[in-house]
């Protein structure tokens, strides 16, 4: 009986007790947030969801990923439209150049995420990350002023992983469960500069279903200066 109760307590701690949500923002002071924004593109987000196995590997789930991408794009568009912003949902990348821009954002965004945690020596307190003038292609294609780029990596604890977490907790050892890491950038398409950036980390968010996904997107967009 005592073992069963202990297992229940450990499961509660492992699956919910260590939940946290953390976000940081950085703003490029050269961006005039009072200027009227005419049109914003929601670029096809780079999203991947998977199951965290007992062995610690993340096995991708195409069905979860497709659902999450749909929820993210729809919710971002709805939230921005409520701010009287003309929102355009970008088509899936149709050229190598567009794919390169998205991949470049992935790389730059990860560096910017690190910068929000540990100020990089060559950056100081400045936030001057850029994707370069190649973003002009998106500006010309969609007639937009700015674009929203989103990156998400999300994993969910399997039953086998949860059982391992319980066993480890009984021995006083902490094992990580599924987690969510994401960042979003608002990019000036004339210059390619990231003018606003937000990083989100959580062991609680869920992008697999509509309502929880909306909560994640609200957290991700919190403070966007539009």
Structure description:
The protein is an alpha/beta fold and 226 residues long. The protein has a single domain, classed as Rossmann fold (3-Layer(aba) Sandwich). Helix content is 39%, strand content 24%. The chain is built from 6 helices and 8 strands, in the order αββββαβααβαββα. The chain has helices at 2-17, 62-81, 96-117, 136-142, 159-170, 210-221, and strands at residues 21-27, 39-42, 46-52, 58-60, 86-89, 146-157, 180-188, 194-202. The N and C termini lie far apart (56 Å).
CATH level 1 name? Alpha Beta
Globular, elongated, flat, extended or rod-shaped: what is the shape? Answer: globular
What kind of sheet is the major sheet?
Answer: 8 strands, mixed
Given as residue ranges, the uncertain stretches (5+ residues, pLDDT < 50) are 1-24
Order of helices and strands: HEEEEHEHHEHEEH
CATH architecture annotation: 3-Layer(aba) Sandwich
Mean pLDDT: 80
Q: Total number of helical segments? A: 6
Cα-atom Rg, whole angstroms? 19 Å
Number of strands: 8
Supply the helix-strand structural class.
alpha/beta
What is the fold named in CATH at topology level? Answer: Rossmann fold
Percent of sequence in beta strands: 15-25%
How many domains in all? 1
Name the helicity range: 25-40%
| N- and C-termini, Cα separation | 56 Å
Key traits:
226 residues; alpha/beta; Rossmann fold; eight-stranded mixed sheet; 6 helices; 39% helix
């Amino acid at each position: 009986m005592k073992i069963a109760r202990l297992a229940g307590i450990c499961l509660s701690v492992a699956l919910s007790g260590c939940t946290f949500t953390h976000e940081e923002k950085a703003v490029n002071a050269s961006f005039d947030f009072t200027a009227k924004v005419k049109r914003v593109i929601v670029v096809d987000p780079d999203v991947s969801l998977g199951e965290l196995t007992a062995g610690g590997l993340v096995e991708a789930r195409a069905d979860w990923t497709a659902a999450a991408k749909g929820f993210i794009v729809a919710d971002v568009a709805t939230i921005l439209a409520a701010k009287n912003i003309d929102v355009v949902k970008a088509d899936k990348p149709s050229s190598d150049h567009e794919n390169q821009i998205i991949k470049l954002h992935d790389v730059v965004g990860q560096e910017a995420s690190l910068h929000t945690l540990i100020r990089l020596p060559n950056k100081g307190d400045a936030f001057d990350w850029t994707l370069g003038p190649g973003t002009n292609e998106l500006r010309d294609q969609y007639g937009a002023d700015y674009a929203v780029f989103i990156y998400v990596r999300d994993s969910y604890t399997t039953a086998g992983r949860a059982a391992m977490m319980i066993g480890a907790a009984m021995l006083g050892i902490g094992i990580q469960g599924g987690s969510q890491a994401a960042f979003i950038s608002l990019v000036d398409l004339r210059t390619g500069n990231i003018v606003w950036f937000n990083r989100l980390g959580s062991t609680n968010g869920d992008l697999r279903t509509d309502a929880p996904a909306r909560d994640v997107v609200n957290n991700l967009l919190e403070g966007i200066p539009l």
